[in-house]
Amino acid sequence: MKNKRVANDTYQEIINSTLSAMAEDGIANLTTKSISKRADVSTASIHYFFATKDNLIYNSFVFVIKSIRLDMLTARKGQADPIKRIKGAMETHFSAMHLSDEAAYIWPQLWVHAGCDERTAKLVRVFGARMISNFTYDLCEAGMGRREARLTAIELRALVVGLWLEKKVTKYAAPQEYREVLDSVFSRLVEQTKGNRK
Predict the structure, then answer these.
(1) Do 120 and 62 touch, CB atoms closer than 8 A?
(2) Residues in contact with 123: Cβ distance below 8 Å, sequence separation at least 6, in sequence order
(3) Domain boundaries, position 13
(4) For a tag site, which of 31, 32, 127, 181 has the least CB within 10 Å?
(5) What does the alpha-carbon distance between residue 47 and residue 49 come to, in Å, rounded to a whole number?
């Protein structure tokens, strides 16, 4: 049992070190040697757990997606109001952790990597499709027709991605302005669905 715990700790430390390296140096400059130094493990350990650098990068992105997905599910859990479920799920993307400088460097790299790596592309597609599906369900429950709900869900997903790009690339908007944008969107959704709740 202890050996399994040590192995899990080593695995996670390698993932954490990879994400830190990506945030500081970018994927292009990532090497197993630099990660082994950060994680204080041998390069053999990295190859044992991941076999290749591509697998390491992919599994690091899997960890990022699973983390945000878990946060979103936690925010949705037990919330009866469908608009508040959406709001809670979207707000997880703009928490201090997910708006940190490190995260702001990692997410755009994930999207770019998805353009040249099919496994990462599938990961991003599945995550986006689940978000849209959940939001569509919520909006239908709030009284929207199916087509309007789906289009609104796509718009909400695009808003998350767009605000992330604002954070990393243009740096035009301040974190408080993200909150104001979200509040405005949710006020509109509440108004749109008023009187239609099931």
Answers:
(1) no
(2) 58, 61, 62, 65, 114
(3) 1-51
(4) 31
(5) 6
For residues 9 and 99, state if they share a domain. no
Of the candidates 184, 188, 99, the one whose C-alpha atom is nearest the C-alpha of residue 152 is 188
Tokens for 6, please give them.
């040590």
Residues of the chain with pLDDT under 50: 1-2
Alpha carbons within 13 A on the beta-carbon side of 113: 24
Q: Are the beta carbons of 141 and 82 closer than 8 angstroms?
A: yes
Query: For residue 2, what is the domain's CATH number?
Result: 1.10.10.60
Classify residue 39: in a domain, yes or no. Answer: yes
What pTM did the predictor assign? 0.86
Structure tokens at 120: 């990462």
Q: Which residue's entry shows tokens 């946060």?
A: 71
183 & 92 share domain = yes
**pLDDT value for 9:** 86
Q: What are phi and psi of 58, to 5 degrees?
A: -60, -45
Q: How many residues does the chain have?
A: 198
